[in-house]
Amino acid sequence: MKTTKILFAISAITTTIFFASCEPDNTIIVNDEISQTIQNNKADAIEVKTIIMRFPSDTQTYNYSLASGEKRTFAFKQTQTGTLLKTTNFRYNLLVYHFEITDSKGHKDSFQRRIESKNSYKDTKISETIVITD
Amino acid sequence: MNRILLFAVVTFALPFCGCNSVFRSNKTQIKISHDVAKYLAKTEMIINNNNINKQIIRPVKIQYLKNDTQQPRLSYKRVKGNVVVLQIKDSVGHQRHVAIPQVELKAYPLLLSTTASPSITYFLLTSKKNQQRNILVTLFYHALAINMDVWIGATSMFANPNARYAVPKSFSINQLSEVATLDSVNPNFLQKEGDPAELLNIPLPINPNPTPFLTADYQKKYQCIFTVNSGYGINQAHSTKLIDNQTSRVPLPNKLTNGMWTSFGLLIQPRANYQWGFSYHNKADPNLSCDYLLNEIGFLIPFKKSHFEIGGGLGWGMTNHTIGNNYVDSFTTFQNKPVGNGRLLEEDYKFIPNVSHAFLPINGHVQFIYPIKKNIEITASASYSRIPSYSDFIKTETLLITQKITPTITSYKRDELSYQQITVKTVNQIYTLGLSIRVKI
Questions:
Q1: Any domain includes B217
Q2: B113: left (phi over 0), alpha (psi -120 to 50) or beta
Q3: Do strands B172-173 and B27-32 pair parallel, antiparallel, or not at all (unpaired)?
Q4: For helices B117-126 and B131-159, what crossing angle results, to 10°?
Q5: Quick one: which of A24, B169, B206, B402 is 20 to 30 A from A68 by CA?
Q6: What is the C-alpha separation between B161 and B357, in angstroms, rounded?
Q7: Using beta carbons and an 8 Å cutoff, which residues of A are at the interface with B?
Q8: Quick one: closest CA in B to A107, which residue?
Q9: Do residue A128 and residue B411 have CB atoms under 8 angstroms apart?
Q10: Does residue B5 lie within any of the structural domains?
Q11: Could you say which of A7, A124, A133 has the minimum Cβ distance to residue B150?
Q12: What is the pLDDT of residues B126-165, one digit of tens each?
C-alpha cells in the first residue's frame, strides 16, 4: 500500500511537470540605451544650448555653461516588453540633439547629431561624446 | 566527446552489468570429484529449497566437461535459499540428504537511472539553448525514468526471485562419505546413529578456508573501505575552444593550473580481486571551484604482502571559475569586412564569475596498496583524469567611430553591435601522483 502511494505521488509530480513545461515563452525584451555627452576641453568656459527632439513629439531645451574640463551627459533609457505576436506595440526611438555653443570670445558654433534605435527588435546601446577643443 | 562518452559507458557497463541477473546463466553448479560423480551416476538426485511452506524441487544432473582434467559438476536450475538440500536416492531406496550452501549474488542494477540518466542529464543541462525548458525536461525525464525503474525493477525482482542464488565456487564435494546413501532401516545404522530421524538432521556445510569475503558458513561478506587521498596534479591542456560555434579573435586563457587535489572515497570490496565505490574529488584552487563524484571500479592484483590496483571511473562534476581576467582588443574588420576609415571594432570580454558547468570526468589509475596494520593500508597512486574547465565572458562588439564635426569639435561614438555570453571550454588532462590512507571499516 505504501509503495502504491509513493508510485502515485511520483506519477502526479511527473504529470504536473509535463503540463507545466508546455507553456510557450514568446516574451521579447528590447532595451534602448542612448547617451549623448558634451565635454569642454577648451581652456575657458563655454555656454551651451541643447535641444533634444525625441520623435514624434517630445522636445526639451537645456541652457547651461560648462567650465574647462567639465562635461554633461543626456541619457535616455527605455525597456520595452512584448510578445512575438504583438510586436507592433514596440516604439522606435529617434533622438536628434541640436547644440549651439558660444565660447568666451563670443564665437558661435552649432551642429546637430542624430541617434536612432536599431530595428528588428534588437537592443540599442549607443553613446556619443562630443569633445570641444581650442 | 560523444565517442568518448559512448566508449566510457560501454567500458563501464560491461563489468557492472556482466554479472546482472539478466545475463546470468539460469543454472548453478557444484564441483564434485570423479569418484563422487561415478557413485552419483547410479542414483536419483533432486534439490529442494529447504522451505516447508513453499517447497521448490529441481532435478539435478551430472555434467562432464570436455576437458578431463576439470572436475565434473552437478547442475541444477537456480533456486532461492541460503542452504538447499540435495536429496540422493539409490536403486535400493536408500537415501542421503546433503546441505548445499548458496550465496545471494549482488549486481549493479541495470536500470535507466543507473545507465542512461547521467549522460542525458549532462547533455540537457550543459546545452546553452532553451536552458529553462531543459531544466523542466530534465525533471520530467527523471520522474519518468524513476517511475519506469521502480515498476521494471520491482517486476523483474518478483518475476525472477531464484536467479540471484548460486553455489559458491569454492564449495565442492570430494569425499564419497559426504554423499553415500544410508540404510536407515538397517539395525546397525539404528544402533550407530540412534534414530532414523537422523537422516533428516543434515549437518550444515563448513567452509574449510574462510576468507574476509566468504564466511565459515559460506555466506558472502563485504569489506567497506574509507579512503583519504591527496596528490599533486600536473595539467596539460588538450584543446581549447568556444562552445556552440562562438568565435573570438582575442586569446582567452582558460587552462587549469597545476596544484593539489584531494579526494575521499567509500569503496566496497565484494571479492579479493575486485572493488567498486564512489569517490569525491576537489581541487584546492582560490580561482576555481572544481568538484566531482566518481563511480569507480578497480581490479586488485596480489603482490607479496601488498596489492596493485588498476582501476578507472566515470562520474559527474561541477565546476565554476570564481576569479578571472577581462580582455579587450580592437580590429579594423568586422565579420571579415573592413570597418572603414576612422573606425575600429572593439572586442571586449568581461569575465562572469561563478557560472556553474556540469561535466563528465573520466579517470584511470594505478595504485600500490601496502598494509601497515590489520585494517589500515597506505597507497601510492598515479592517476590520469580528463576534466574540462570553463570560463564565461560577456562578449561585446562595439564600433568606435571618430568624426571631426569642425576643426575644434570632434565626435567619439560607440555603437554596440552585439552582446552575448560566450563560454570557453578547455579539456585538461591531469596527471596526478598521490598518497592515500585506506581504512577497512
A1: no
A2: alpha
A3: parallel
A4: 180
A5: B402
A6: 42
A7: 3, 6-7, 10-11, 13-14, 17-18, 20-21, 25, 42, 101, 109, 111, 113, 123-134
A8: B408
A9: yes
A10: no
A11: A7
A12: 776 777 888 888 898 898 988 888 888 888 777 778 888 9
Residues B289 and B410 in one domain: yes
Tell me which residue in B133, B136, B146 faces A10 most closely, judged by beta carbons.
B146
User: In the numeric block, which cell numbers belong to residue B226?
Assistant: 574509507
Domain range A26-132, CATH architecture: Sandwich (2.60)
A121 pLDDT exceeds 90? no
Chain A's closest residue to B151, CA to CA, is A7
Question: Which one of B136, B148, B149 would you mutate to disrupt binding with A, by most A Cβ within 10 Å of its Cβ?
Answer: B136
Query: Is position B11 within any domain?
Result: no
Tens of pLDDT along B27-61? 899 999 988 998 998 899 999 988 888 889 999 99
Q: Are B297 and B275 in contact (CB under 8 A)?
A: yes
Query: How far apart are the CA of A58 and the nearest CA of chain B, in angstroms?
Result: 24
Chain B residues with CB under 8 Å of A11 CB are 147
Q: Which three cell numbers stand for residue B361?
A: 570526468
Phi then psi for A15, rounded to 5 degrees? -65, -45
Whether residues A129 and B412 touch (CB distance < 8 A) is answered with yes
B396-417: average pLDDT: 93
CB contact under 8 A, A128 and B146: no
Q: Is residue B18 part of a domain?
A: no
Q: Search chain A and give the residue with CA nearest B401.
A: A128
Can you give the residue range of the structural domain that contains B127? 117-159
The total number of structural domains in chain B stands at 3
DSSP class per residue in B57-106? EEE-EEE--SSTTSPPEEEEE----SEEEEEEE-TTS-EEEEEEE-EEPP
A88 to chain B nearest CA, in Å? 23
Q: Which residues does A32 contact at the CB level (< 8 Å), separation at least 6?
A: A76, A77, A78, A79, A80, A93, A117, A123, A124
B413 contacts in chain A (CB < 8 Å): 126-129
Do both B95 and B133 map to the same domain?
no
Same domain for B265 and B375, yes or no, is yes
Write the single-letter amino acid at A22: C
CB contact under 8 A, B409 and A21: no
Nearest to B359 by CA among B258, B440, B283: B283
| A88 phi-psi bin (left φ>0, alpha ψ -120 to 50, beta other) | alpha
d(CA B71, CA B211): 23
